[in-house]
Amino acid sequence: MPRTKKAAAAAEAAEKETTKATKAVEKAVEKTVEKAAKDPAKKKVAPKKTAPKKPEKPAEAKVNFFVEFGGVQVSVDDVVANVKATYGKDAKEIAIYLKPEESKAYFVADGEEHEMAVYFC
User: Fold this and answer.
1) Which residues make beta-bridge pairs with 107?
2) Which residue has the higher pLDDT, 42 or 16?
3) What pLDDT, in 10s, does the model give residues 25-68?
4) Contact, 79 vs 73, CB < 8 A?
5) How many CB atoms lie within 10 A of CB 79?
6) CB burial class (10 A; 0-12, 13-18, 19+) of residue 115?
7) What is the 3-state secondary structure (H, E, C) of the chain?
8) Among the four residues 22, 24, 90, 109, which has the most C-beta atoms within 10 Å?
């Protein structure tokens, strides 16, 4: 397909512009390389990547908590387990009030009030 004079002139002009742009980019790259070679202190070095350290948590001490009344005692862990069993379903929040003189535990589980007997042995 023969090219017209206008198309040929436009292609020639575009080629000249491309050549000019290429030369400008090459000059800019050369200047940057020269600057980096002259001043090594300004060279950028990628930092080494290291995995973040996990903070060490101190080991928690096991606590055995007992309530003693009238010469007998009950484990608080047992009271909590019995409250959960008495409530019968998983609760989001439980507050327990232990009254040894009545041998009772009053508790509020998810806003519902309940009571249960606590046997001191």
Assistant:
1) 96, 114
2) 16
3) 788 778 777 776 666 555 566 677 777 777 888 888 888 999 89
4) no
5) 19
6) middle
7) CCCCHHHHHHHHHHHHHHHHHHHHHHHHHHHHHHHHHHCHHHCCCCCCCCCCCCCCCCCCCCCCCEEEECCEEEEHHHHHHHHHHHHCCCCCCEEEEEEHHHCEEEEEECCEEEEEECCCC
8) 109
**Arithmetic mean of pLDDT over the chain:** 81
Which residue carries 């998810």 as its tokens?
A: 110
Nearest to 87 by CA among 59, 67, 107: 107
Query: Contact at 8 Å (CB) between 101 and 84?
Result: no
Of residues 59 and 21, more confidently modeled? 59
List the beta bridge partners of residue 105.
Answer: 98, 116
Joined together, the tokens standing for residue 111 give: 């806003």
